Amino acid sequence: MSVTDTGANGTITFTTDGTERMRVTNTGVVGIGTTSNSGSLTILNTSGAFTPSNYLSIQGSILNNSNYPGIELKGGTLATTYPQIALGNGGLNLVLKNGFSSSITGETSILLSPTGGIIFSASTLGSPSAVLTVLNQGTVQAATTISVGNATPSLSGAGITFPATQSASTNANTLDDYEEGTWNPTDGSGAGLTFNILAATYTKIGRAVTVIIDMQYPITANGLDTVITNLPFTVLNPASCAMTPMTDAASIQFAFFVGNQNNIRLYTGPGAFLRTTNAGMSNKFVYLMATYVTS
Predict the structure, then answer these.
(1) What are the tens digits of pLDDT across the range 27-81?
(2) How far apart are alpha carbons 143 and 115 in whole angstroms?
(3) Fewer beta carbons within 10 Å, N or C terminal of the chain?
(4) Do the beta carbons of residue 40 and residue 29 sit within 8 Å?
């Protein structure tokens, strides 16, 4: 090994086995593996391999996990520009990743690629795979599920997870809720009837709720007016709306949502337009699909 000072306005070079390894110029610029420094510190990879000998390695203590290594880019208090990491020549990738060992159950990385965009990858074991990509065209691609409103993303399927409780937006162009599930139609007439529920589902998109009912009335001679209640969301008043149910009760022509309540009422027709009774629906089936507006 030799250290050579080339004199005034010269450089200090560090040589091993007859080959220059590092130099410090008279202006304080440092070059490793290169004689043409392009910044305060230049490290040139001449082998083409991604090995520790070809990149800057900053490590914490192996025996102390609280010693976290890092790089801080800090501008002056009066700086007009921000410090940055710049990749040149348009063909380079920047990879930021955490370590992986038997004591770490997950591995994450961020890849900045001139051709692939910004790629966020993660894995619970082994090599991470892409979970979110910001493409060069400005579009965003998610591998599975993303969430809004600080909701926990679903681990099944792929889609958008909304909060369990809607976070309503005043912006008319913002979709602020989506929910789907089942509900339990019950007798709201006061007769205490028990329905045979074959299917009862709902889908809520924003303030619009679509419900499906496939059910059967019990055998009854009760003369109270029919009321199917327990809709999954309250009908907005005065947004009562009519629908045509399918039923084997020939006299039933209409069904109405009741505004500011969560009820459905069945009516006879045509012409008379009267509410039907439980006895009129004895042992009859009701199937309907309808959409209403909630608050």
Answers:
(1) 888 888 887 776 787 877 666 555 555 566 666 665 555 555 666 666 666 656 6
(2) 19
(3) N
(4) yes
